[in-house]
Amino acid sequence: MSGHTNGAASAPNPASPRDPYAEKLDAFPELPAAPPPPPTINIVKSPSDAPDAGLRSLDHYKRALPTWRYRLRQWMLPLIRWETPYLAYLQETMRTPWLDSYFAITANLGTHTFFMIGLPMLFWCGYASFGKGVIHILAEGVFFTGFIKDLFSLPRPLSPPLHRITMSGSAALEYGFPSTHSANAVSVAVYGILVLRSPDTVLPDTTKNLLEGLSYFYAISIVFGRLYCGMHGFTDVVVGSVLGAAISLVEFHYGPALDAYMHSSSWWAPAIAALIIIALVRIHPEPADDCPCFDDSVAFAGVVIGLEIGTWMYGRTSLDSFGGNAHSVQSIDLNALGWHVVLARVIFGVLVIFVWREVMKPTLLKGLPHIFRLLEKVDMNLPRRFFTPASKYETVDPGSRMDTLIPSVRDFPRVVQSIRHPTTRGRSVSIGPQSAADAYETLAYRERRRRESIGSNGSVKSKGSMFELREKNGDWEGKGAASGVQGHNTLNDFERMMGTGSVLASPNEEKEGMDLAVGQQDELSEKEMFLRLIRPRVRYDVEVVTKLVVYTGIAWLGVGLIPIMFELVGMGSAHLRNP
């Protein structure tokens, strides 16, 4: 465990969990020092002498998934593969250094981290109803897209031929179908447009039209950016967008009535809502690979639990700025409150949330392992794959970066650096498998191509795709293009690149354009491919409860306790109520 930087234990431990890929790698023989790549493999007629197609990885999903889920995956997989050459053609046709930077940076505006940092301010600045609606649609979008991702376990479109442009190291570890970015962006845009068109919204027509236009532009930019960056296919973004729009329509038309019912009910209403949310977390499908989708679902589940409890509690206090109804569509007059007070409220609220997180996270990570070990003894441990049980480790490093929604205090220097120098914040252009799902799909597609070649020609030709990539990369600097593949490939060329599995470097771009490092072999061996993958951090069973408690507390503080504290310290808005 000492060799793992993220989520490593604070002290050496003989019972440390193994590397997530160790068991996969142990199954493969040692690589030869310099394997010669023969241009042609002659196939003999005897079935017993045919190339071995019985690699364990080819049956990975058949073994890892229930039969009905495996059949669903196999039904959808051909569509994902069919799209890939068209996506590569689109990417090659459009890529420029400026667009690379634009779509990589603006992709952050579709993440749940961006929304989670900004949403509390809606409550502190008087837009409680809109803020609650946005939290609902984001939480539902993250949960349902994560649910579907783990259910289908479908890979992202293959690279090569696609180049993946991203500023996130963890995004590549997730499955591709459907797109959470698209669901988030479309749901927020649709919900915002519906609110703008509502009779309750009193704004000048010019302002409404401007905000509506920005909403359309925002959604289209995020959705198309996922295609441009090679992170998703057409099916991913279409299904994600439809899901996001449907969630917003349901929230806009039925959310206020449900909120009013929750507000008028006794304490059992938020309690039942919390139990339902926990039950949904419990039935979240087990992924076939180590995918971090479940982590985000747990965090947002905690946010919704805290939101419902906090708004229910705040609406029953005499300090409620909305006269006993925290779900009112009214807003606070910020000019009457004073912008200096608004700024002070934001700073104060952020400090309270960070103090809560910095105190509760290490406390829970220190105390929960002892409780979980006791639960293991009575067979009540957390039955979740890819999470190390408490009996397998001594302690958890409280500084481990297990949170993906809100940055910690120690992350501030990195965040400031990313704001000051956005084009050098780890933006990379990667070619080749990055996750286990990528590697398995590369091997499966390679085997499919091999069998097709055996059936049609009686021999297997070595792929020329990476040779073509190297040849075309030679004139990149002279032409000033951002991509290593110039605009002369056909759809058939891109299809031939699929399954080559050549892992190229993922360089940080410290200058305009991409420093492309070309692979030394056209096709990687199976073991080498897994050795070069981005390895997910070790995850611990206590993280699930830790995230639930921490994020429940963050939401409860943000919408319930902090507004009360505003009134007590002289930054309140109760005096602005209509008499």
UniProtKB/TrEMBL annotation:
InterPro entries: PAP2/HPO, PAP2/HPO_sf. Its main location: endoplasmic reticulum. GO terms for molecular function: sphingosine-1-phosphate phosphatase activity. Residues 132-252 form the Phosphatidic acid phosphatase type 2/haloperoxidase domain. The keyword Cell membrane does not apply. It is a multi-pass membrane protein. Residues 1-46 are annotated as: Disordered. GO terms for cellular component: endoplasmic reticulum membrane. The keyword DNA-binding does not apply. SMART domains: acidPPc (SM00014). Signal peptide: none annotated. The chain crosses the membrane at residues 102-124, 214-230, 237-255, 267-285, 297-315, 337-356, 544-566. It is found in: Endoplasmic reticulum membrane. Keywords: Endoplasmic reticulum, Hydrolase, Membrane, Transmembrane, Transmembrane helix. Belongs to the type 2 lipid phosphate phosphatase family. This is Phosphatidic acid phosphatase type 2/haloperoxidase domain-containing protein.
